[in-house]
Amino acid sequence: MDSLQVPAPLKRTDGEDDQKSELSFIMKEKLHTMAKEVQRRTSAVRESLIKETPEDSFSTTSVGAPTEEHRPSLMSLIGLQKGPQGDAEDEPKQKCRLPQSLHPYGRFYMTWLFLVTSAFLYNAFCIPLRSSYPYQTKSNLICWLVIDYTCDAIYLIDMKARDEMLKHYLMSSVFKLDLIAMIPTDLIYIYSGPTPIWRLNKLSKIHSFWQLFDLLDNSFSSPSVIRVTRTLSYMIYIIHCNSCVYYLLSAWQAFGQIAYVENGKWYLNKWVYNNQGNAYIRCFYFTAAVATSTGNNPAPTNVIECDFVFLLKTCRPYVYMTCSWMMGVFVFALLLGQIRDIVSNANRTREEYRRQMDMALSECKRLGLPKELTNRVRDWFIYTWEQQKTLDEKKLIEKLPLKLQTDLALSVHYNTLSKVQLFQDCDRALLRDLVLKLRPGDVGKEMYIVNQGVLQVVGGENNETVFAELRQGSVFGEIRCVT
Questions:
Q1: For 213, 318, 328, 355, which has the most beta carbons within 10 A of its beta carbon?
Q2: Of 145, 170, 204, which one is at a domain's C-terminal end?
């Protein structure tokens, strides 16, 4: 009787492993070929659609591949860009019509706010100037009044508010300040003559000055210059008002022509302005010197007597000098402190970069790493700082809402993806999803895109043979996207 032969159990051999790896490679090649075929068919369908509607130039550019002129913008990707709507005949009407709303950082609003601030600065500087110096005369009075009432008209136009914002505007403190600025105190001219001091209520428009500098501070990426300019403007205005007071004191002392007695001798007051040369320039220089150089200025020459009335009169120069010195020390210290803070904040990020690089290099030295590896660590720090000005940009945006993070990713990575041939005809939604997945510092496991610089593919002994050079826009590993 024949015996049954039981087949031996199958064993995996190296040949089978090679066969499977070869099969895997063939599958990848097939998928790559399929992706190219889909792309070819998509291009063919697109071309057929273009040929069917040759007269529609707008649809041709919108369906075609993105170019430098017709590449989709960032705002179109996030759904905020509006296409051309309406007829061409409505465009002149839209240009002549005032905008329904003003963006607080828009060019039109900033220009208008600058105009209102200029009107405020005119009143702030010219009211003390004309009230003290003899620059307002009968011959130029009409010119001064025209400029005054032009600024008043700007104030009045600035009070306009639409129905949606009217209730909020009437309940705000800004409306109260605007209302004070529009009080017609000029009517007192009928009884006292054209005395500019009655227009001091126009200075309540100072909130426009503050708002302009706040907007400029938030608009510039480096607002240090804006902050220093704001502090300097305060100091210059204080010196300006102080010079007006100094001129009034000099005029009250008859510009040094009234003699006084000291130790039985008669002297002229040399402390006051002597009415020689340009009055404003000389007084401004004197008050600027008083404000910035305490203790190196001429002292008042009045002698304090026992008579109370004479004491009250002769103490005025001493009181003026004391207040000027204290004010100068305070403003000058404020300016120096603000400049110190600005310089410190400007160098804070760079000092942090230096500290981290020194710590990393010290650790490499402690571990006894080769010099070549240490140089690579140093080169990475230097390159990252030169390109990004920060070592960890994730911390800069991680507190932003997801919508803003999406916009940042689109603006950074969309141009890079649009240069890759694989994504030339992809849907915008796909590009949007792709850029959200790109993060600096992530390990590239699927595809690499050269965004900047030149990448060399090397091999051979000691990696001395250069097989290829990949430049900006080159891609390798794109097969991973379809496997």
A1: 328
A2: 204
Q: Are 129 and 237 in contact (CB under 8 A)?
A: no
- Residue 301 located in a structural domain: no
Q: At what angle do helices 308-367 and 371-388 cross, to 10 degrees?
A: 140
Distances (CA, A) of 478 to 423, 435, 442, 457, 482: 10, 15, 17, 16, 8
Q: Based on the domain organization, do 114 and 191 belong to the same domain?
A: yes
Q: What is the dihedral of CA 112, 118, 123, 128, to 10 degrees?
A: 160
Domain holding 32, by residue range, is 18-64
Residues 6+ apart with CB under 8 A from 35: 422, 482
Task: Output phi, psi for 265, to 5 deg.
Answer: -120, 150
Residue ending a domain, among 187, 204, 221, is 204
Report d(CA 126, CA 136) in Å as an integer. 10
Of the candidates 282, 244, 229, the one whose C-alpha atom is nearest the C-alpha of residue 125 is: 244
Residues 38 and 121 in one domain: no
Cα–Cα–Cα angle for 180, 183, 186, nearest 5°? 135
Say yes or no: 111 and 174 in one domain: yes
pLDDT digits (tens, 9 = 90+) for 248-292: 888 877 666 666 555 555 555 666 777 777 888 888 888 888 777
Which residues share a beta bridge with 267? 260
**Domain match, 186 and 128 both:** yes
3-state SS class at 324: helix
Cα separation, 416 vs 434, whole angstroms: 11
Q: Does 180 share its domain with 114? A: yes
Does residue 116 sit in the same domain as residue 198? yes
- Domain co-membership, 137 together with 193: yes
Residue 325 lies in a domain: no
> Residue 262: in which H helix or E strand, if any?
strand 259-262
The pair of three-digit structure tokens given for residue 123, joined into one six-digit string? 């009143």
260: number of Cβ within 10 Å: 15
Among residues 55, 35, 37, which one has the least CA distance to residue 45? 37
Same domain, 44 and 108: no
DSSP 8-state code for residue 469: E
How far, in whole angstroms, is CA 199 from its chain's centroid? 35
* 3-state class (DSSP) for residue 6: coil
Give me the number of domains the chain comprises.
2
339-342's contacts with Cβ under 8 Å and 24+ in sequence apart are 339/228, 342/224, 342/227, 342/228
pTM of the model: 0.57
Spans in the chain with pLDDT lower than 50 = 1-12, 53-66, 68-69, 74-75, 77-80, 82-88, 303-313, 479, 482-483
Residue 185 lies in a domain: yes
